[in-house]
Input
Amino acid sequence: MSDAETSTEPAEPAEPVTGWGRTAPSVARLVRPRSYEEAAAAVRACGTRGGIARGLGRAYGDAAQNAGGAVLDMTALARIRSIDADAGLVVCDAGVSLHRLMEVLLPLGWFVPVTPGTRYVTVGGAIGADIHGKNHHVSGSFGRHVRAFDLLTADGTVRTVLPGTDLFDATTGGMGLTGVILSATIQLLPVETSLMSVDTERATDLDDLMARLTANDHGYRYSVAWIDLLARGAATGRAVLTRGDHAPHDALPRRARRDPLAFRPGRLPAAPAFVPEGLLSRPAVGLFNELWYRKAPRHRTGELQRLSAFFHPLDGVPHWNRVYGRGGFVQYQFVVGYGREDTLRRIVRRIARRGCPSFLAVLKRFGEGDPGWLSFPMPGWTLALDIPAGLTGLGAFLDELDEEVAGAGGRVYLAKDSRLCPEALRAMYPRLPDFLALRAELDPRSVFTSDLARRLGL
Output
């Protein structure tokens, strides 16, 4: 046996692993490969309970957990292998974070093509979840900008996978179940500065918000709306709409032009390990939502903001997920197609009547869907909200929303899911049979598996 194989044997005890929502921890053996060879050895040594790759742990549910099996922590594989600063191409290991890419690439005038609400996501995780951001209506999902990736499959083969192939489409959004992504080539976005030019406005209700988004989104690269899901009556769905684009060099004040591509994200103290009961009660969140809506400008244009403030405000608070207390939280995100606005209205009204204390709720418009067989986005409206997991009757309530979403031809985002049932999954993802057939051929012994895969029959 080689040294590489020896180093990944189960020397470490099993330990609890959980998603960012902290709702359903399970115990697994964590393996931390430091090279591609060690990753291959770890896959060979997974055992009967299989293994799953894991990045920085920002999947909200159980996608990167594997009870009784192995979890491959890929964060030590974090080399940026090459940068073509003329063509805007980067080749990097799967364990490289979007944060690290920004640090290295922004000074060269390049930005990641798609970023979610956190920059602490690995490239491998970005592909496996086919992440989306505020620019989906313009740029699509992350997989659209991947030119190739190397995939370690269950038979120990490393395959270079290209767009337009079944394996590419099964892996982008496939939640790590086709293999371990080792490296990727990504097409980047050119930028002149590290600041954003941002327009902000208030919408009085959900219909007003949708009308504003529909009328003007084509004029912005990035667009998102914070929505007050506790407002009722005439104010149901009131929101603060924020849209923008990368600021050009000539829009910067004189002092900022000296270092226009500086990337200096701020950082606040970490959230406390213990959070008092009642902090996320309906009255407390209602007060927060009222203040947040009232302090937003009715209409403001051209405000310059740091990238971190526009894209990743929560990253400035380490361990912000602790705010929900020991019970954790559920993030529920769904999409329904254009023409199904009545379904969106009905769900928003139901959430408001139910009094779900959510202060992190956003509405966006999706553009053309991407080819990933389990990729989440489709043309339509997507709403995401955080809900304390201990809310009485939450499971049954979300099951009812699942039925509404599926009945409208929509779907729930697997990277944030922790409680969907297999029947709902089959109704929501029409390419699921293709995914299961390819997976059965590629990995007949289910070497790659996870708590999510077992729960949903993947």
Remarks:
- Residues 175 and 441 are 17 Å apart (CA to CA).
- The first helix runs from residue 3 to 7.
- The radius of gyration is 22 Å.
